[in-house]
Amino acid sequence: MSDIFDLSDELGPEKVLHLTNAAAGLKAVLVIDNTAAGPSIGGVRMASDVTVEECARLARAMTLKNAAAGLPHGGGKAVIVGDPSVPELEKMTLIRAFSDAIAEMHGYIPGPDMGTNESCMAWVRDEIGRAVGLPRVLGGIPLDEIGATGFGIAVAAEVAESFCNVRLDGARVAIQGFGAVGKHAARHLIHRGARLVAVSDSGGTVLNPGGLPLAELITLKDAGKSVTALPGAAKDPGEAAITADCDILIPAARPDAITEDNVDGVKAQLIIEGANIPARAAAETALHDRGVLVVPDFIANAGGVICASVEYHGGTEATAFHAIEEKIRRNTNEVLKRASDTDSAPRTVARALALERVREAMGFRRFT
Ligand SMILES: NC(=O)C1=CN([C@@H]2O[C@H](COP(=O)(O)OP(=O)(O)OC[C@H]3O[C@@H](n4cnc5c(N)ncnc54)[C@H](OP(=O)(O)O)[C@@H]3O)[C@@H](O)[C@H]2O)C=CC1
Ligand SMILES: O=C(O)CCC(=O)C(=O)O
After folding, report:
1. Cis before 13 (ω within 30)
2. Which pairs from 234-238 meet CB under 8 Å and 24+ separation?
């Protein structure tokens, strides 16, 4: 970064905080991007190689996502440097130290993201009194456990059927990342007639053109194993899910999974972005130019934050699913229709729609 304000533009970030606590081994970053529409909501990511830039890009994605979904919340995100699979006591210490460090940052409401879950959010709430994606016993709606985002992905895919040549019934689906988003997206797409042909996690990829067994894959993950432990499937140690022979690709892991280097190998005709910022801009442009329909992250994966917002405002699980279905169906349809009418990339249209809402909200502030 050549200038410390390189990350800034007219929207934000409002705050970029480095949080450290040597005694607890804490190294974390919080980015509150924009709070014009209300206090920011966004997940807490725990991974060994997270950066300030990744956090800022994710926080901006939340600003756009929350605005596109019409939520009374701005965007923020936090990252904690660390291995999410450390023993529970170690993880709890880190999460509690992180919570303590953000206690006064009332413009940020933490939720779960990669490497954190409902229990982590319970520890955050215990420390500072605010968090979403809480366990049921605390009155929360455990958004990862119920698969709020995966459900929204399937709704987006259903809408996308009308804008491309892919039919969910019989479609071959490849999923990168088999965590909270990936496995529930798989479940809901299979329910709609699709066949899972490739799945990956950090251990590698398993492939079977005849279909992979969802229940067995989930059992392996629940037992702390990699999907590559599945017997009887072809295996690849790397990122073969991205270039697998399939009709629908769901990237549901880390940012920048689809790049200029692998985009030519992508065979899917429809990509529903489950992860945040899973494709480099140039790669997404190349896909659009080739006629591949890409439903952008902040439209397709809004299920989690819609659920989080419903929880924060006292709603029920049933209300959350209703809101996810209604908002994602309407937004995906609006974005894909406008994109088709104007021959534009869906992301261009979606961004304009979200920015319009953020700017309108900013117009009500004393300092806009
Ligand atoms: N949870 C939610 O509601 C939402 C999540 N998202 C985004 O979706 C993505 C996934 O989140 P979530 O499912 O919650 O995270 P989880 O931590 O539950 O799962 C992440 C999955 O990705 C896998 N993974 C990590 N690195 C790689 C890699 N290089 N190649 C393939 N797989 C990999 C992990 O493997 P392993 O199991 O081996 O660790 C794990 O299966 C993130 O980008 C997140 O920001 C977006 C909206 C909402
Ligand atoms: O607040 C949450 O945990 C869910 C929202 C989120 O982080 C996301 O959509 O990426």
Report:
1. yes
2. 234/206, 234/207, 234/208, 235/204, 235/205, 235/206, 235/207, 236/204, 236/205, 236/207, 237/204, 237/205, 238/204, 238/205
Whether the predicted interface score ipTM is above 0.85:
yes
Contact present, 80 and 59 (Cβ < 8 Å): no
**What is the enclosing helix (H) or strand (E) of 285?**
helix 281-289
116 is in an annotated binding site: no
Q: How far apart are alpha carbons 246 and 210 in whole angstroms? A: 11
Contacts of 258 by beta carbon, 8 Å cutoff, 6+ apart: 242, 251, 266, 271, 278, 279, 280, 283, 284, 287
Q: Which two tokens stand for residue 240?
A: 């073969």
Instruction: Tell me the pLDDT tens digit for each residue of 166-197.
Output: 999 999 999 999 999 999 999 999 999 999 99
- Ligand 1 geometric centre to CA of 249 (Å): 15
Q: Kindly give the distance from the C-alpha atom of residue 319 to the centroid of ligand 1, in angstroms, as a whole number.
A: 25
> What's the whole-model pTM score?
0.96
Task: For residues 67 and 63, give the distance between their C-alpha atoms in angstroms, rounded to a whole number.
Answer: 6
Closest CA to 148 of 177, 175, 188, 114: 188
Measured from the Cα of 308, ligand 2's closest atom is 1
Q: Single out the residue of 294, 336, 18, 36 nearest to residue 159, CA to CA.
A: 336
By alpha-carbon position, which residue is closest to atom 9 of ligand 2?
305
Residues with catalytic function: 77
> Which backbone phi and psi does 13 adopt, to 5 degrees?
-75, 150
Domains annotated on the chain, with CATH: 15-63+74-140 (3.40.50.10860), 148-303+330-353 (3.40.50.720)
Going by C-alpha positions, the residue among 344, 354, 356, 357 that lies closest to residue 163 is 344
Residue 363 CA, ligand 2 centroid: distance in Å: 25
Ligand having the closest approach to the CA of 206: 1
58 and 47 Cβ atoms separated by less than 8 Å: no
pLDDT one-digit tens code per residue, 220-232? 999 999 999 999 8
